[in-house]
């Protein structure tokens, strides 16, 4: 997707991560310069009994993983032109150093929902691993259609069912996920949970815009993560960043359809949540129900701080810029509460395009804990309709506005 002329080339100033050795590890992986002192073991799932004809190959994958994990350096290969059916499976560590999973073919979820009864939240999970790379150009298909029909988001009463996440990485360090297509997740597509030093590159994530809760990339309790050159179109947030996450950078993201790029929700059930040091840069949002959003519940505590949204193009986006400290995702109205998650030090720079809503900028901040240090610079959001203009609604906030800002907070 071509970048609009109004969006400048991506800024090259990066978040300064504490562990610079992470980048050296990634460069060595990408260049194939891994240590030659240890022999590389190639593990092909077909050699462990996988058929690749769409039938259940879970047992073969389990055996292949055990062989790869026990080696000092290994590559687990999922061959191309094959479709491997899997029921829920966890690839656990710790393993030998420098473990690579190459997915060239297709991995497809079992549509038998009874297979998920042991843990209905997961399908594919990698956990407790260091120096892991998952790549290859293949496909991961969650077969989510049967789950969406029974989604509690659509029908919140029994017999609704919460669905599993397609691909979860938990407690992984020095992790690279690249060059994959993840489609039709049962619920969320890709989750990074309690991970440190992560690179997610060149991913394509797709699901119908009506599919419930199918977030593209969900980042929770994760530090030092870059998300780069990804195309995401789903029925929920393209990227969601929630509590415990810091040093998050997303660059060159094509988002839409979906609910935009969100920080939060934070503070639900009076929880203390914290998100800091986030950069969303050089990206395009098209036809989404929100643009870039910070959403917090009343009654919570903590903060969303040091956040930059810059060099963004909006194409027919509802609510292109939004802070909502009164977020309420439930049927009954949420009662007013004095406590709130503090939103502070948020910068919006060079954001241009068209808004599908009259309010192109909406800051609905807390009366008791107003938004602090909000900066708007070089904003030009026009109405998608040629006969209407855009407005800004700015409650309990006094943003600093420089350059041309349209619409303006008055």
TrEMBL record:
Keywords: Cell wall, Cell wall biogenesis/degradation, Glycosidase, Hydrolase, Secreted, Signal. InterPro entries: Glyco_hydro_28, PbH1, Pectin_lyas_fold, Pectin_lyase_fold/virulence. It is an enzyme of class 3 (hydrolase). It catalyses: (1,4-alpha-D-galacturonosyl)n+m + H2O = (1,4-alpha-D-galacturonosyl)n + (1,4-alpha-D-galacturonosyl)m. The active site is at 259. SMART domains: PbH1. One of its GO terms (molecular function) is polygalacturonase activity. Its EC number is 3.2.1.15. It is found in: Secreted, Cell wall. Gene3D superfamilies: Single-stranded right-handed beta-helix, Pectin lyase-like. One of its GO terms (biological process) is fruit dehiscence. The keyword Secreted applies. Pfam families: Glyco_hydro_28 (PF00295). The keyword Hydrolase applies. Belongs to the glycosyl hydrolase 28 family. This is endo-polygalacturonase. It comes from Eucalyptus grandis.
């Amino acid at each position: 997707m071509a970048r609009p002329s109004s969006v400048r080339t991506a800024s090259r100033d990066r978040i300064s991560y504490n562990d610079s050795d992470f980048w050296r590890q990634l460069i060595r992986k990408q260049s194939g310069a891994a240590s030659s002192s240890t022999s590389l073991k190639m593990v092909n799932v077909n050699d462990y009994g996988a058929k690749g004809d769409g039938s259940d190959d879970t047992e073969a994958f389990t055996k292949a993983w055990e062989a790869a994990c026990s080696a000092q350096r290994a590559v687990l290969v999922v061959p191309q032109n094959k479709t491997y059916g899997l029921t829920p499976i966890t690839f656990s560590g710790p393993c030998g150093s420098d473990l690579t999973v190459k997915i060239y073919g297709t991995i497809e979820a079992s549509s038998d929902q009874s297979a998920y009864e042991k843990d209905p939240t997961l399908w594919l999970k990698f956990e407790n691993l260091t120096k892991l790379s998952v790549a290859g150009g293949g496909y991961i298909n969650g077969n989510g259609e049967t789950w969406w029909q029974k989604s509690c988001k659509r029908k919140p009463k029994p017999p609704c069912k919460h669905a599993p996440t397609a691909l979860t990485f938990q407690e992984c360090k020095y992790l690279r996920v690249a060059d994959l297509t993840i489609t039709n997740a049962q619920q969320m597509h890709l989750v990074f949970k309690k991970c440190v030093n992560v690179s997610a590159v060149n991913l394509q994530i797709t699901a119908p815009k009506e599919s419930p809760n199918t977030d593209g990339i969900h980042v929770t309790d994760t530090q030092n993560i870059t998300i780069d050159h990804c195309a995401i179109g789903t029925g929920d947030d393209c990227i969601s960043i929630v509590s415990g996450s810091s040093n998050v950078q997303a660059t060159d993201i094509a988002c839409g359809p979906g609910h935009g790029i969100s920080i939060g929700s934070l503070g639900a059930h009076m929880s203390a949540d914290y998100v800091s040091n986030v950069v969303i840069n050089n990206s395009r949002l098209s036809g989404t129900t929100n643009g870039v959003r910070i959403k917090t519940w009343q009654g919570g505590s903590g903060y969303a701080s040091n956040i930059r949204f810059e060099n963004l193009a909006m194409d027919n986006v509802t609510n292109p810029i939004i802070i909502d400290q009164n977020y309420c995702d439930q049927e009954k109205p949420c009662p007013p509460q004095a406590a709130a998650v503090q939103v502070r030090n948020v910068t919006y720079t060079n954001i241009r395009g068209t808004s599908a809503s009259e309010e192109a900028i909406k800051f609905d901040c807390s009366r008791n804990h107003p938004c602090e240090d909000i900066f708007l610079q070089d904003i030009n959001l026009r109405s998608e309709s040629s006969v209407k203009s855009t407005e800004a609604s700015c409650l309990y906030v006094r943003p600093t506005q420089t350059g041309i800002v349209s619409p303006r907070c008055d």
